Structure formats: C-alpha cells, structure tokens
Amino acid sequence: MTLGVNETHDPSIESWVESANAPEGDFPLQNLPFGVFRRKNVSEGPRVGVAIGDQILDLAPACGQLGIKLPTDTESSLNRLMSQDPDELSAMRRAIHAGLKTGSPNQAALQLALVPVASAELLLPIEIGGYTDFYASIHHATNVGRLFRPDNPLLPNYKYVPIAYHGRSSSIVASGTPVVRPSGQQKVGENEPVFAPSRRLDCELEAGLYIGRGNSLGTAIPIADAPQHIFGFSLLNDWSARDVQAWEYQPLGPFLGKNFATTVSPWIITTEALAPYRAPVCARPAGDPRPLPYLLSEEDQQHGALNIELEVLIASEKMREQGIAAHRLSRVNFSTMYWTPAQMVAHHASNGCNLQPGDLLASGTVSGPEPGSLGSLLEITKGGREPFTLPSGETRTFLEDGDEVILRGSCSSPGFRRIGFGDCRGVVLPAR
Fold it and tell me: Is the pLDDT of residue 72 over 80?
C-alpha cells in the first residue's frame, strides 16, 4: 500500500455523512478504516464495513454502486481483502472516498448502505492465524528489567534483535469483551507455589499491526518491502497476570500469564491512511550499535516511525456507578519505539518464516521516558510498591474486579485532519 499522501488525505474535503466532519471525531473521510460488524437484533451474518463518522458503510452493497469488485469470502472477515495487491487496495480507498465525499453522485444509493454504529455489534475484523508479541519499546524493557535486574536492566541482545515471542491467537477478543481474571501458579517468597486467581492483573498499552500480503515459506521480506506487507494498525491490550508470569517465565518466557486474553480495537487503520503521520525514527543514543544491514534502510529511518498519540484510562465499578469519567493513567507517543514496524516484519521473516494475511504482530508495551508515559501498571506502580489513587478515592496497584481499561489512539499533523483508532476496552470479571 502506498506510503505517499494523495487526494484521500486532503483536509479540505468533507463528507455528506455529517458526523464525519466533526473536528474531534475519530473517523473522518480521511480515515476510512476497515472492520467487521453485525446488525443488532437482525438475523444475519457478519458484514465487512468501513467506518465513516458515527456510521458504517456496508461494503457488499456499496461496492456494487462504486464499481469495486470485492474478493470472494469477504462477507465475514477481511483476510481475503487485505491480501490483495497494494495498488488494488489503494484504488478501493479512492473509490470509497469519492463515493462518500460531499457532492458524490452516489450519495443517494450509498445512504441505503449505511448502518449506525449504535445499531451494530463490532466483531474481530479478521481471522487471526498467527500472533506474535514484540518488545519494541526500550523504555518499557529498561523499566521492567530494572525491577528484576537492578544492576543489569537491559540484556545485551536487545539493541541488536527485535525481541518477541509467539502468543495465542485463539484468546484474542474484540473490544468490549469482558476479561475473566485468570488463575495460575504463583510463588511468593520461599513458600511453596500455589494455584490461585491472579492478584497482580495488569494491562499493557500496545499497537497491533496486521499482515496483508504474506511471503512464501523459506523466503525473507526485505526491510525496504516490509511496509507493503502491512495492511494496517489497531490498538491492543495484552492483559498480563504478573504473578503467574514471574514464576513461569524462566527459562522460556511468557506462557499462561499472557495467553488468557488479548483485546484489540475493532477498526483497522490502513497503512495508507497513516501516510501523513509518518515520522523519522528516534535517534539511537550515542554508543548504541547500528541495526544490522537486514534491519536498516534509509527510507525506514526517515519515515518508519508513526506519530500516534496513545492513552490508557481506567474506570472502576464505583466510578462508573457515580458517573465519574475514566481516569487517564498514561499518555505516550508511538514514535518513541526503539524498533519500527518495518523492522519487526523484516526480522520476523528473516529466517524464512512465512507470514500470512491476517497475522497479528503486537508492538509490545509502549512506554516513554517520562513518568506519565508508562504503558503498564507494573511500571506505573513500580512493581506494586507505589499505589495510585483514583478520583473516587480508591487506590490501585494492579487491576481489581470491575475495573474497565480503555485504550485510545489518534494521529495529528499540521495541515492534515485528525484521525482516531476508536476505543479498545475491556472490563475485568471475577475469576471462575
């Protein structure tokens, strides 16, 4: 998908869908993210759609009006659509943009293909075959390392290798799905381990990137080509049971402390929509090694970061009952990441691993260098030693039953419209 700016990013063009023209809305005409929905109280299967303001454009009838041919098997997931050639996807974006802009001759026909978001259930946008969670924020890696290895917080491979582990795709859920508190083995001090509900349940602020076109088994993806393999991005909360994780992670890393739930936002913001918000990679500190040649391209260094403003908010059950707004815990920009999305993709396929349409790669927790920019409670509370206070007067070190975690993201750049990602949220339910 093209990384360049074109007429679909023009901030002066408005939509005949009035709600799309609100300055602070997430889904103006310049965004056009893809998702899958189902109309409430209607006996029908999932539908592929595009968000526009507070409406969803049902693609199946809309594409007929716009002269777009959808791939077969595109009724219930985006996998076939996202595997198309980047030029075909760009042409589809242009056609949808033209159909939804003010003065479009297709307005009357497309109005019949609109479904209010309030009347729809938003589903997982793709069938996820593989899920990989990276560890691409050096600030997060250093903060966590300092908690467990004060004298050696960052292991020597970190500045050479985009570290990651393979997660569990079956437990990835759409925003709004409740998260049941997991149980697992925990060990406190010198006592024997016990099996019990996690007492140190955490959230992790992450971005997810979805593979569009894949690569054949045994072949690599050059870093210069990697952006063309990324269909788009969403928000992602990689819930974590820190007490379970602490006991099980040595020597092989995360397992049951991570795979009980991962929440993703329902709309995929395409790589093309994000073109105006690309940014230079943060300069590596003096003395840090240059990335190895297969992870280094001048284009990626100049435009490989993304200027996405991310937030973590929390609302306890008591806060919701009292009508108290969600409390912001953190705000951080995705451009602070040590490794870029292109580097993650290139490294993942560098050994010949075959990425496939719909594979999900997570960035790992996004944390910045400042106290207010930390993406997990583990960091915010310094391992549970420093509680924080909510507007209701309640205190927290880790998540309690009834707490709702909300992730938000948006992009802004001078001369362009603000676009957003929509919410990524989940409420914690008691252990079963």
Answer: no
pLDDT, tens digit (0-9, with 9 covering 90-100), for 333-353: 999 999 999 999 999 999 999
Name the CATH architecture for the domain at 7-123: Roll (2.30)
- Residues of 366-404 as b/e, b for ≥16 C-beta within 10 angstroms? bbbeeeebbbbbbbbbebbeeeeebebebebbbbbebbb
Domain range list for the chain: 7-123, 131-429
What single-letter amino acid sits at 274? L
Helix (H) or strand (E) holding 120, with range, is strand 120-123
Which residues is 313 bridged to in the sheet? 328, 406
**Phi-psi bin for 350: left (phi > 0), alpha (psi -120 to 50), beta?**
alpha
Say if residues 96 and 113 touch (Cβ distance below 8 Å): no
Name the token pair of 258. 């991570």
Q: What is the dihedral of CA 66, 68, 69, 74, to 10 degrees?
A: -90
At the fourth CATH level, which superfamily is domain 131-429? Fumarylacetoacetase-like, C-terminal domain (3.90.850.10)
140 catalytic residue (yes or no):
yes
Cα–Cα distance between 85 and 214 in angstroms, integer? 11
Run of H or E including 252: none
Summarize pLDDT for 349-378 with one digit per residue, the tens: 999 999 999 999 999 999 999 999 999 999
Return d(Cα 236, Cα 375) in angstroms, integer. Answer: 11
Distance between CA 5 and CA 203 in Å, rounded?
35
pTM, to two decimals: 0.96
Q: Tell me how many helices (H) and strands (E) the chain has.
A: 10, 27
Residue of 9, 97, 139, 140 with catalytic role? 140
Q: If DSSP states are collapsed to H, E and C, what string results for 150-200?
A: CCCCCCCCCCCCCCEEECCHHHEEECCCCEECCEEEECCCCCCCEEEECCC
